[in-house]
Amino acid sequence: KPLFSSPKPLPSVPAEQRMVLVACGPYTTSDSIAYDPLADLIEVIVRDRPDVCVLFGPFLDAKHEQVENCQLLGSFAEVFKLCLKTIVEGTRSAGSQLVFVPSLRDVHHDYVYPQPPFLLPDLPKDDKPRVHFVSEPCTLDID
What range(s) does the DNA polymerase alpha/delta/epsilon subunit B domain occupy (predicted)? Predict the structure, then answer.
């Protein structure tokens, strides 16, 4: 049984032809928390329209200099939510299934192993069918 399914059927393409994009954080440069690499990744997702995007953390890296020196303009949870909102809203037009996998270096998340999935209770209703939060480790079955 698949881990998740699309609210609308995916185009009838053989499973071996599904496009799966996998990316691993951090999604910032070492000298800025501006998420410029994340913006580049979103452009690739919108352009290539993969069926599934598996995004591994860290989304807000505990080892980033600005995090370590407490130079953020908001709380860790607020910065993380803004990061996820940017990804979800930025990829909406692509229609890709998004799978978020936590990292032990996600500063806002539980530092335990195995890691529970992220929680985002204020995720817009329209995005819930395509946004998936999984634990780390996990088994992901696509098709």
Answer: 20-143
